[in-house]
Write a structure and sequence with these properties.
This protein is mainly alpha-helical and 312 residues long. It is built from 11 helices and 3 strands, in the order βαααβαααβααααα.
């Protein structure tokens, strides 16, 4: 009887950080250019790795997976944000919000796991170079990649099912430019205890667990590099993991920034800006940091671009 008194929510109103009417066209152009750059840059990396045999190595196999994750992560948020920038009423349907939740959270969870797997790859390459081919053979790499995608997807799917069981009877105003679990749970008039427990467990196992594993791998890597006698050898060993270390630092710093500060209206505004980091900035930087700084990959990508431009 109580359930029948709840109003079924069919859409949510988005109140993001980009609501000034005089800036919306400029922001639309800016975010559209960034989105195109993210999709094209990461797609070029994937195509180059797939069709060029010298890049069929464990490291580039995982980089291709990371590029695909970045495309999915950005595509789950930006197209709807671009649509709302050009509309006076900024809304998203309930189904669209749930879909966005699923794709975004599965992408973020999968990326956390993948960064840890890539840390292990660098650990194996630097600490056990003679056994690297055996430790990271093709079957193991495929198994690791499938496991990463499966765990990230299952975690997001379970969280999404727990959201679908909730009733929403409060004002349907989302204080963000995309749907995420904290903002959606704040609108529910049902008990969100189970959802919060699930989120806490996901934070412990996915965020903290992967952070500790990544830190452990890099502690072993640093110890091994310090044992190398020649400075040239140290520099070469460090260069093989510097790109990944930079991306890991950038990714985890945004997560830590969001979760260590107290909740307030000011921190919520800052969180919206930080969200831009992992939905737009990081996906556009990853191809540059990981691959385009590599001369071989840069030459391959340049050849592909020239071939596309000259194709009649």
């Amino acid at each position: 009887m109580e359930h029948s008194n709840h109003t079924r929510v069919t859409e949510f109103i988005m109140q993001g950080r980009f609501d000034h009417p005089h800036h919306q066209r400029q922001l639309f152009g800016l975010f559209l250019c960034i989105y195109i750059a993210v999709v094209m840059g990461n797609s070029l990396i994937i195509v180059s790795i797939v069709i060029h045999p010298p890049l069929h190595t464990p490291m580039y196999f995982f980089i291709a997976n990371l590029a695909l994750i970045d495309i999915l992560c950005t595509s789950s948020v930006v197209p709807k944000m671009l649509e709302n920038l050009m509309q006076e009423k900024k809304t998203i349907s309930f189904g669209g919000c749930i879909t966005q939740l699923f794709v975004l959270t599965s992408s973020l969870g999968t990326e956390l796991l993948l960064l840890t797997v890539m840390s292990y790859d660098r650990y194996a390459a630097i600490c056990y170079p003679l056994h690297y081919v055996k430790l990271m053979r093709k079957e193991i790499c495929i198994c690791l990649a499938v496991s990463v995608w499966a765990v990230g997807t299952i975690n997001s799917f379970v969280s999404m099912l727990l959201v679908l069981r909730l009733d929403f009877c409060r004002p349907n105003l989302i204080q963000h430019f995309f749907c995420d679990f904290p903002t959606i749970l704040a609108l529910s008039c049902s008990s969100t205890y189970i959802n919060e427990i699930m989120m806490f467990m996901a934070d412990i196992f996915l965020a903290m667990g992967n952070f500790l594993l990544t830190t452990m791998f890099y502690c072993f890597i640093i110890i091994t590099i310090l044992k190398i006698q020649s400075s040239k050898g140290k520099q070469r060993a460090f260069s093989t993991c510097s790109s990944h270390l930079f991306v890991v630092t950038l990714y985890y710093s945004t997560i830590i920034y969001i979760y260590i500060q107290p909740t307030s209206s000011n921190s919520l505004d800052k969180n919206k800006m930080v969200a831009i980091m992992y939905t737009l900035v990081t996906p556009i930087l990853n191809p540059v940091i990981y691959s385009l700084r590599n001369k071989e990959v840069k030459d391959i990508c340049l050849l592909r671009v020239l071939a596309l431009l000259w194709t009649p």
